[in-house]
């Protein structure tokens, strides 16, 4: 790869944020020229307000914008009040349900709270700003849009976009409404260029088609070179997308998820993911990331505690991170969580069935009751909801010398190896 000049892009490559770019050299020149002139480059990250909080799966491009701002540049967070009324077809197999005005307004407030966790919103030259594409779409003349913008797009090319092609190949219906989504997002990019001088869009890899829709419109309609930069989709060693925990999103906003549960999500990351997550989800220097990632066996648990603490501190603040760490230490290392926890002994090399474990510890009166609670998502293993009634608890589940069982939020017990 060609040697890069800008501080921001070098950080992106070093920390594992780079997936692909429409013109890496051009983007590097744009950002470096701004750095030399002492003025901020302007980039944006978009998110439709289909929910009232971001989750861990959204953090990667948000962290990219955080580094963008730390390097002296200006982040724009675009909330798609207009595009949310259509629904992004990327990665979807059917039309999203339509949201009412009140829900969209509440979701927008929630998203801004999520973004404020990672970015500094202010009037300074590189202070983050939030914009809403409803502002320029709500009064737009449909015929004028078709004439001025629609004429710049080829249907042949639009049909090759993954979001469209995949749906057609599966013979799943796509509405004309969804088909138009890439035009609207492409136009967003150009509006932000005209209003803010924004020339960079940062997003996850699944947004590549929508990004190139904007860069091509910039060239054809406005004679400007715009740049798209995407991050990889972060997965665990099993290929599962990060951000989901047993089907439940790991939410950013505190009213959606307790800080302790957020902490435990990162505490329970697989050994192979520790280095990657330290580089992406924390601000720790890379030397420290490499040192922690190189730890082996039981020592890797110390790296996981640091990962969980740093990620929680960034998202929920230092006080909540310390409280979560103290709770985890009491529960897992001191065998207490306010009161002493009941302990059972089991040969974890052989393993013990999850139903037997909850029966032995006395949380259920029968295996039938345990099965019913599992169906109701009422039992947890190491703070993760149990979904498989036939699961065998083994040495692989040991954390700091023991395994934690929970029923609801208040009943906890420990399994220690016999």
- Largest beta sheet, briefly? 6 strands, mixed
Shape: globular
CATH homologous superfamily classification of the largest domain: HUPs
What structural class results from the helix and strand content? alpha/beta
How many structural domains can be distinguished in the coordinates? 3
Strand order of the largest sheet: 1-6-5-2-3-4
Describe the model:
The chain is an alpha/beta fold and 418 residues long. The protein has three domains: 7-231, 3-Layer(aba) Sandwich (Rossmann fold), CATH 3.40.50; 258-334, Tyrosyl-Transfer RNA Synthetase, CATH 1.10.240; 336-418, Structural Genomics Hypothetical 15.5 Kd Protein In mrcA-pckA Intergenic Region, Chain A (Roll), CATH 3.10.290.10. 44% of the residues lie in helices and 15% in strands. A six-stranded mixed β-sheet has the order 1-6-5-2-3-4, sandwiched between helices. Strands 11-17-16-13-14 form a five-stranded mixed β-sheet, with helices on both faces. Helix 11 (208-222) links the parallel strand 5 (200-204) and strand 6. Helix 10 (181-196) crosses helix 11 and helix 13 runs antiparallel to helix 14 (286-293). The longest helix has 18 residues, at 101-118. The chain is globular and about 75 Å long. The relative contact order is 0.10. Residues 335-339 have low confidence and may be disordered.
